[in-house]
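Reopening this ticket.

The earlier resolution said the output was attached, but the attachment link was broken on my side. Pasting everything inline this time so it's all in one place.
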Amino acid sequence: MHQYTLETVQSNSASAIIEQAPGTDIFHAQEIQENRIVSFPPERGEKKPESVDLNTSLVLTGGWQDIKNETFEGIWPSTGWTVVDLSNDGFDRKWDDDTYRYHAGYYAAWPARGGTNGLDPSSSNNDYFNNMNTRMTYGPFDLVDAVKAEVSFWLWREIENNYDYLTLEVSRDGVNGPFQEIGRWTGSAGWQQQSLSLDGYTGDSSVWIAWRFYSNNSIVFDGPWVDDILIRKYVPGQVTAQGTFYYTDRNNSLARARYTKVYLYDQDPGISDDLLATTTTDSNGFFSNRK
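Inline output:
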């Protein structure tokens, strides 16, 4: 019996052609879309085929999925967003979007723009307030089916160094908390993209993420501006592989590879590949498996 190993690829669809490397015991499969090479070693003692044709299709339905792509270009706060003033200082100042500074489009979020006592920033008056403690939160979103998750956003900042700061927080209960801080920024910098892992929350059905800005009782600057937020998760999908093996036999005739054992592997980002399934071709060299 010939033995082959078939390895799946990270693409929505694929086709492959298998050829023997001249003078070797190795068959090579070239995945046409991504030029990914996969090896198919035959058992010892068997005649090495001069050529093998694998007329097959590989389909993977999983991959990265966007949960929220926030550009602040529409009406905001939109569905899923909440803003709250946590300062208890008698003023109501909350996050809102504004056109004064932005990374892309025309709007970005600023922590002093909203609320009854918020400020419409201008070139002559664009500083945040003292004694601020305000949070904008998105959620809940579902990570039950995810094996990886992450959030990225663009940040511009001019903040009193080490005294005032912006934090990124995550919670499994966006109403009562607690919120866990997973990132903090202070000082000054131009537009930079920030990316943080949410892997610690995969498997949870309800997750909230929040940007909180805090200022003390003296010295204010332009503050943080947040834009182009992307929350996404990686979901492993269902793989369907089917096709027919052909090879050149001892008589140099093209023959179907009957009763050939096939191993199906995935390709996980950043972790070990998993054996998904094994199957065997039928009397016509055809195999089909879904995992």
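Reporter confirms the inline version is readable. The radius of gyration is 28 Å. The chain has two domains: 6-61+237-290, 64-235.
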